[in-house]
Every structure is written in structure tokens, then in C-alpha cells.
Task: inverse folding
């Protein structure tokens, strides 16, 4: 479709097998799970200068974050970043070791209890070109 307009799947159709979808805003919009009709819930996509993925969770009683088995084939090893948030009281945590299968947490703690988020850039697709000169079409 060119020149504007809408594609309305009415909540019952899928868009499949596109190499790229470019948009000014990317949302999902669903029936509100708590308030029900007529309320809706709209979330938007987190955006940044990379094609990124993340895993997150809670760590308790162990100092190892086990990454999904596909992680080594999905992300650039050198693009990983980790956020650690203590639960219950302040604590010093840090990434002691990192491999493609796990992240070992070090720090000053007797027992470990934290939330984590691990971000990385996908390597199965070309890296995002963030700044570029728009090509002009021939008229």
C-alpha cells in the first residue's frame, strides 16, 4: 500500500514474512485485562540505536544467571549489559564473569536476592544503521 491508508486486521489477522516494518510509533493495544470493556491498554515498543533483545528475572540463593541456550547464537558477545537491583536492602553486586551461557554475580553479600535484566544486540540480522541520508526518488 502506498499513499496512506490503513491495514485493519480487526485483531484476527497476522502479518508474516516481512524483512522490515518501519513506523513512527509501534504499539500494541488490547482489551484492558483488569478493567475490561470499554477500557483498553496500550503499550509502546522500547526503542534505541540497536536491534536488541533482553532477558530478565529474579535471582535468589544462587549467584548465576543462566542464559537461554540460544543466547550464544542470537547476540553479539561484546554487546551484553547487565542491570542488577538488590531486593530487601542495599547491597553491592557486580558481574564477576560472563560467558555465552551464564553470568556470575560477585559482591558483598551473605545471601543473594536481586532482580536482573540482561540486554544484548542481535547478531542474526544486520546492525541497525542509525543515521543515514535519505535517498531521493526519481520523478
Result:
Amino acid at each position: 500500500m502506498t499513499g496512506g491508508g490503513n491495514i485493519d486486521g480487526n485483531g484476527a489477522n497476522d502479518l508474516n514474512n516481512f524483512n522490515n516494518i518501519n513506523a513512527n510509533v509501534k504499539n500494541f493495544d488490547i482489551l484492558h485485562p483488569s478493567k475490561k470493556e470499554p477500557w483498553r491498554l496500550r503499550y509502546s515498543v522500547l526503542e534505541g540505536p540497536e536491534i536488541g533483545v533482553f532477558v530478565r528475572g529474579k535471582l535468589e540463593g544462587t549467584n548465576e544467571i543462566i542464559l537461554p541456550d540460544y543466547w550464544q547464537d542470537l547476540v553479539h558477545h561484546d554487546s551484553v549489559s547487565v542491570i542488577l537491583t538488590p531486593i530487601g536492602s542495599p547491597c553491592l553486586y557486580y558481574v564477576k564473569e560472563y560467558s555465552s551461557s551464564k553470568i556470575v554475580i560477585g559482591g558483598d553479600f551473605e545471601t543473594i536476592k536481586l532482580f536482573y535484566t540482561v540486554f544484548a544486540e542481535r547478531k542474526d540480522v544486520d546492525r541497525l544503521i542509525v543515521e543515514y541520508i535519505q535517498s531521493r526518488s526519481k520523478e
